Amino acid sequence: MVFSSSIFLFFFLPLVIMMYYVCPVRGRNVVLLVASLFFYAWGEPIYILIMLFSTVFDYINGRILAVAKKLWKRRLVLIISVVGNLSILFFFKYRDFFCEGLNGLFGTDISIWDLALPIGISFYTFQTMSYTIDVYRGRVEAQKNILNFAVYVCLFPQLIAGPIVRYRTIHRELGSRKHSFLMCYHGMQRFIIGLGKKVIFANTIGALWEEIRDSAGTSDMSVMMAWLGAVCFTLQIYFDFSGYSDMAIGLGRMFGFHFPENFKYPYESRSITEFWRRWHISMGTWFRDYLYIPLGGNRVKLPRQLINLAIVWFLTGLWHGASWNYVLWGVYYLVLLLIEKLFLLKFMKKWPGWIRHIYSLFFIVTGWVIFACEDLSVLWTYVKSMFGVGVPLVSDMGLYDIVSYGLILVIMGIGATSLFWRAKRKIHGKKGAHAAMAVLTVVILVLVVPMLIRESYNPFLYFRF
Fold first, then answer.
1. What mean pLDDT is reported for the chain?
2. Which residues are catalytically annotated?
C-alpha cells in the first residue's frame, strides 16, 4: 500500500484517523501500531516478522545498554545491534548482488534466490541502529515502554521511504503529544500538496521519461531527446520523493508528530557540495553523524579524510540499491565532491551565481541518468546519446515531446524552486491568504482523485530502497 493509492486515501486513512481521535488518549499508540502493522502487511504479510524482530531486538539492546555499567559490555551490545541489523539488511537486499559478483569473478555457481525486498527495510534499519547508537552515546535514554518503541519503528507515515526519523527527534512525542484542529488541518494541507506533486507532476513526467529511455539506441533518439529525458527524470525523482516526504510530514502532523524536513530546494544549489546539504537531508545527516564523523570526519589528515569520504559515498550509492549503477552513482558524486573539496570551491567563489548554478545542474542532471538506468548497457547508450555520439542533434519525436510537455516542464521547473514558498511567506497573514491556500488544496485534490481512480502510471521510485 502506498499513499498515492485509492485504497489508502479512501479507506485506510479515513478509518485510521476516525479510530485514532475517537479512541481515548492512552489507547492512541495502540491504534497507530495496529494500523501501521496492517499497512506494512498489506502487500507482504510474512515480512512483518522481520520488522517485529528488529523492534524487539533493538528494544532489548537499548534496555541492556541502559543498565550495563562496564564499557566492554556496552560496546559488545552495540556491536551485536549493528551487526545484527546490517546482517538482516545484507541478507535481503545485497545477498544476491554479491553472489552474482562472486559467480562472475570466480566462475562459481552460488545459487541466486531472488528474494523479494522487504518494503522500507533500509529506512527502519537505519532508524533502529541510530536508536541503539544514541543510547550507547548517552544522547537519549532507553525507551522502557515497548509499545512506544514499536510505534517509533513501525509508524506508517514514514515507514516505507522516510524521512529517516531519529528516535531522539520524536521520543517525547511517543509518550505524550499535543493535538489540535489547526495542526491536523495543516497536516492535511501538507499531505495533499505532496500528493499533488506525486500524482499530477511526477507521474505525468515520469511516463515521458520511461518512453524516452526505451528509445535509447533507436532512430527516434537525438541529443535533444536524450537531454529532455534526463531533465524529465530529474524533475520526476524530486517531485516523487519530496512529494512523499511532504505526505509523510503531513501525516505525522495529523497524529501529533513533527518529522524533520527532507528537502530544501536542492535544484537551487550552486555547487554539488551544497546540493547534498539540500537533498535527502535525513539520509545525508545520518551518514555524517553515524559513519563519517566516527571514522574521523574532518578532524584527521587529508588522506584519511579522502578515504572516509570514499567509504561514505560507496555505501551511500549501495544503500540506494543492489545494482552497479548505484555504486557508480556514489563514485560519481565522490569524485565531484573531492574535486570541489580539494580546489574547485575556492575558484567557484569568483564565478557569477548563474554559472555556478548551471554547473551544478549539469552534473546533477547527468548523475540522475546514472541513477535511473540499472542496465549498464542502456546507461552507456543513453549517455552517448546525450553527448551526440551516433545520434542527430534534433529529432521529430524530440520536438513533438517538447511541444506536448513544455508547459508542465516549465511549471515543474518553477515548482522545484523556492519561488512559491517565498510568495506564500510574503502574503502570510494577509487577508485572503488562508482562503487561497484552502482553495488550492481543494483544486489539487479534485485533480488527483480522477487520476488515482483511473489507476494509470503510478510508481513510487524510493519504494524499493
1. 92
2. 320
Dihedral of the alpha carbons of 391, 394, 399, 400, in degrees to the nearest 10: -40
pLDDT score at 68: 92
All three cell numbers of 65, joined, read 545498554
Q: What is the per-residue pLDDT for 454?
A: 74
Task: Supply the pTM of this predicted model.
Answer: 0.93
Helices (H), 107-222: 121-137, 146-154, 167-175, 181-196, 203-213
Alpha helices in 289-416 (DSSP H): 302-319, 324-339, 345-348, 353-372, 376-386, 396-415
Cα–Cα distance, 434 to 427 (Å, whole number): 9
d(CA 176, CA 39): 23
Residues 172-199 have pLDDT tens digits of 999 999 999 999 999 999 999 999 999 9
Cis omega (within 30 of 0) for bond into 163: yes
pLDDT in tens, 223-248: 999 999 999 999 999 999 999 999 99
Nearest to 378 by CA among 233, 204, 205, 198: 233
Q: How many C-alpha atoms does 417 have within 13 Å on its Cβ side?
A: 12
pLDDT at 42 over 90: no
8 Å CB contact between 183 and 256 = yes
> Over 60: is that where the pLDDT of 464 sits?
no
Write the CB contacts of 188 (distance below 8 Å, at least 6 apart in sequence): 250, 254, 441
| Of 263, 47, 66, nearest in space to 159 by CA | 47
* Cβ atoms < 10 Å from Cβ of 456: 11
